[in-house]
Amino acid sequence: MSSSRHRSVLPGFGLSLGFTLVYLSLIVLVPLAAAFIEIAGLTWAEFTAAVSDPRVVASYKLSFGASLAAAAVNAVFGLVVAWVLVRYPFPGRRVIDALVDLPFALPTAVAGIALTAIYSKNGWVGQWLEPHGMQVAFTRVGVFVALTFIGLPFVVRTLQPVIEELEPELEEASATLGANRLQTLARVVLPPLLPALTTGFAMAFARALGEYGSVVFISGNMPMKTEITPLLIITKLEQYDYAGATAIAVVMLIVSFVLLLLINLLQRRARRIA
Amino acid sequence: MKLKTITTLLAATALAAVASAKNYELLNVSYDPTRELYVEFNKSFAEHYKAETGDTVTIRQSHGGAGKQARAVIDGLAADVVTLALAYDIDAIAEKTGKFPADWQKRLPNASSPYTSTIVFLVRKGNPLGVKDWDDLVKPGVGVITPNPKTSGGARWNYLAAWAYAKNKYGSDDAARDFVTKLFKNVPVLDSGARGATTTFVQRGIGDVFLSWENEAFLALNELGKGEFEIIVPSLSILAQPPVTVVDANAKKKGNLAVAQAYLEYLYSPDGQRIAAKHYYRPIHPEHADPADVARFPEVKLVNIDDEFGGWQKAQKTHFADGGTFDQIYLKK
């Protein structure tokens, strides 16, 4: 009487798949579709003009460049932080562990204002950097700093559970079999971490691309220099240019989607190696 | 027996009066620097309306950058009245929603602007760079703070004031363009709104000169950093007219049309004018304001947008639309 050969032990596959599709459609697909409908009102020429304006192109470079750089830095230092938090018991570990989540919880505007206050020329850090010709607030470096700040928890939190699963015995075994420390790190420790690391990198990158609140305070918003793409979208909206704003948004959407897809493919390969 | 009838009647009328006294709730959508003004004005209007009609009015306020606020109303925020930084934003609401007629600016006196303001310079105490007029702002090494004209209504007034000065002094639009280009080369940060720019200048200590609404400058002078700043009045500035109007369709729907109209008309009353002057807005009827308040406003030669730039629609298109003169400043390098 079995109706299907691949009958799952748990019932409810049809129901839960239906729910998943409806839920994803409502939360994700419908707003995205609205964006595409909005740009349908533009001719092709208007669309290309809107998305290839020199100011907009300069903002793509900054947004994607700074986001990639910030995610890369977070991948390296986030790995170190996660490793230390999991492997070494030390006094105050819980407090530091909780601190990692702060960039998540803090309203982004608060983060932006705080970072600007610290790095501007009369701030705690800025007053030491500025005399040496290093300006952080209101430059591209400032954008990078803000994006690094908000991206850190993504890397740390994706890596922590995986590091907890790593058995120190493996490292010991590797050592007893004659591998030096570098070899142990490269052949035994890092490979199983790679998939989680790429996930964390991808999430930090995606988050940085969409970030608006914290960046606008510290970037100074100079056209051609420190304008991020989300700011230009807001600027277009404030000029009542809904279609133009959506056109830029759609370009960002497509590029981000392609990038995330690539990262997912990379992650699959990484998993196979591991 | 007769007495009882009379008391019953009296009680009935009293009840009727209570029943007919209505409660209104108005929503006033305004721009950034009017917070303090409308707190006091709303209280005064509510008392006035209660005394006059017996009805209770509660006014809710919403503040933010003028462009953002206008967009909220376009997207459906049920404002009964809008009191924004410039006519262009209210035009945009009329055009996109049709909720009130396009010639709204003719409905109230003085182009629907019960108070005006202008653009002045705020400098640090003692005016260390000796800034006196617009020409000092284009000198190398002077840091000028202004918000982004693309997103801030106040910044558009700043930009046009500088343009008008240069055009009057040097005689041509080309010269004005060069002047404004040089001025914006001295701008290290472009905040998106007036309050953000105030913070950059006052709290972060960035820049030497802050181009500001006159009322914001007074506020910074008297409340944010007492004794740390000075106001410098340039030889020529622009007459900034922040207009007001009823959003007819919204107010009608909520049964608020009459009270919304009364609310805006009250801005023109002696009380409204007195409160405006107290909060550093120039009243259009100074005779109603406290002479001490009026004395704070320095004499300054003001040009207005219609004569100098042919109105907001045209100014917006020439200067602030994509590819306009403001964009060109940053594109040609």
Question: What distinguishing features does this structure have?
Answer:
heterodimer; A: 274 residues; mainly alpha; MetI-like fold; 0% strand; B: 333 residues; alpha/beta; seven-stranded mixed sheet; four-stranded mixed sheet; 11 strands
The proportion of residues in beta strands of chain B is 15-25%
Helix coverage percent of residues of chain B?
40-55%
Computed CA radius of gyration of chain B, to the nearest angstrom: 23 Å
Give the beta-strand count of chain A: 0
Largest interface: A-B, 27 and 30 residues
Shape of chain B: globular
- Supply the helix-strand structural class of chain A: mainly alpha
- Taking the alpha carbons of the first and last residues of chain B, their distance comes to 96 Å
Kindly describe this structure:
The complex is a heterodimer of chains A (274) and B (333). With 274 residues, chain A is an all-alpha fold. Helices cover 77% and strands 0% of the residues of chain A. Chain A is built from 13 helices and no strands. In chain A, helix 3 packs across helix 10 and helix 12 (229-238) runs antiparallel to helix 13 (242-273). By secondary structure, chain B is α/β, with parallel strands linked by helices. Chain B has helices at 2-20, 35-53, 66-74, 87-97, 109-112, 153-170, 173-185, 194-202, 214-224, 248-253, 257-267, 270-278, 291-294, 305-309, 312-320, 325-331; strands spanning 23-30, 56-62, 81-83, 115-124, 144-145, 209-213, 229-232, 236-240, 244-246, 282-283, 301-304. In chain B, strands 4, 5, 6, 7, 8, 10 and 11 form a 7-stranded mixed β-sheet that branches. A 4-stranded mixed β-sheet of chain B has the order 2-1-3-9. In chain B, strand 1 (23-30), helix 2 (35-53) and strand 2 form a beta-alpha-beta unit. In chain B, helix 2 packs antiparallel against helix 12 and helix 3 packs parallel to helix 4 (87-97). Chain B is globular and about 90 Å long. Classes of the chains: A mainly alpha (274), B alpha/beta (333). Chains A and B meet through helix 12 of A and helix 3 and helix 16 of B.
